Amino acid sequence: MSQNNAPEDLGAPQSFVVLADGTPVYDRAGDSVGSVAHVLADEQEDIFHGLVLKTSDGHRYASASQVDGIFEHGVIISVPAGELKDPSAEPAPDGDAHFTDGLRRAWNWLIQPR
């Protein structure tokens, strides 16, 4: 069962450049998805690829096209948590090239030593 703990006001819109790890993430229904673990971006080129999210089912990837909004106090994504993909070193070859590149980037971030 999902929890609807979304605050009434997520604050002003923000850029992916200032999005902090740990920021709560909600789906369109207001259900909690998890939190931001990492922003996948090429900041020099100002390209936002997506987010690595920490969920109750492990890390998941939300592509830039699945992110509806980034705000001061939360992120809204367009899909429920159960529809997010696992980061993968070898995503399915029949997928969208941009999306599979994002899954690969998410995987590479996850396996880096910290």
Instruction: Sketch the major β-sheet.
Output: 6 strands, mixed
List the quaternary state of the chains: single chain
SSE string = EEEEEEH
Spatial strand order of the main sheet? 4-3-2-1-6-5
Strand-residue fraction?
25-35%
What structural class results from the helix and strand content?
mainly beta
- The DSSP helix count reads 1
| Beta strands, count | 6
Integer average pLDDT: 85
Would you identify the regions where 5 or more consecutive residues have pLDDT less than 50?
A: none
Q: What is the end-to-end distance?
A: 33 Å
Instruction: Based on Cα principal axes, name the global outline.
Output: globular
Helical proportion, percent range: 10-25%
Radius of gyration: 13 Å
Structure report:
This protein is globular. It has one helix and six strands, in the order ββββββα. A six-stranded mixed sheet has the order 4-3-2-1-6-5. The mean pLDDT is 85. The chain has one helix at 97-111; strands at 24-27, 32-42, 47-55, 58-63, 67-71, 74-77. It has 114 residues and is mostly beta strands.
